[in-house]
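Folding follows sequence. Below is one example:
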Amino acid sequence: MSEDLSQLIECYRRMILIRRFEEKVDELFAAGELRGTSHLSVGQEACAVGAVVALCPEDLVTSNHRGHGHFLAKGGDPKRIMAELFGKEPGYSRGWGGTQHMACFKIGFLGSNGITGGGIPIATGAALSCKLHRNGRVVLCFLGEGATNQGTFHESLNMAAIWRLPVIYLCENNLYAMSTRITDACLVENLADRAAAYGLPGQTIEGNDFFAVREAVATAAHRARSGEGPTLLEAKTYRQLGHSRGDLRIYRSRDEEQTWKHRDPIPRLGQRLIELGALTDAQDALICEQAARLVDDAVLFARSAPLAPTEELTSGKRCSP
């Protein structure tokens, strides 16, 4: 298959933007400039970008607590996302939702979710709506491996299978639910095998391989759009940072982390682009510089943005995602 090299370069840009954005967020929390907590997806960028690029622009996406990358991959504005983290009015939830509760219906991002497994029934309901309206849309549901032990996971997959709903459940298996290794919580070697219990296809893929993710999601999307129903995909990946702010990662070794860093999805895609003749070292450096500038601009925007008016705090007024 011939590759659209310009699209690949854009995907590479998007992955680097996600990485720089989240590294900056980590810095801001460490400096005390951002408050609360945050869940970063450094190391998982191929899942977000590879999956979203396989969709049509009008398709829908639901996310989880680790959702910055998913939002940016779907076309979210880094300035507005950063403003939300700062609690400022131009944020996607006017500063009220914070890192775990942002949405933008205009671009088909139905929201991140602070409840483990909370986005799964939302995606299933959205897929039911798509089927009833016959609009040809597909819903992509990002979830973590910890969510596969929630009741919402099993109930939703069963319903989606019975009604042949156009939904793709993409489990980003980064091996740890907080500090609990998946092998201590589930004896199934490949979580995608759970799909068989509901009569739908399941596939385990290399989550750090952009091309593997893109191909698997594209196949599942075609199946869903053709009326054949849902698919469960398991993308095996790794979060390079802790579960959340303040996690010292005492439950895993530095050797394990180093092993996974050698499988980092960004240099992996970059090397492939070099092999295809689509990227030079100079171009790579420029892409990284541009991503850093975009993130710095987002921080400046968020710092100078206004807070929502205090008189609206108890008014019940809502944002319009």
User: Anything to note?
Assistant: The chain has a mean pLDDT of 95.
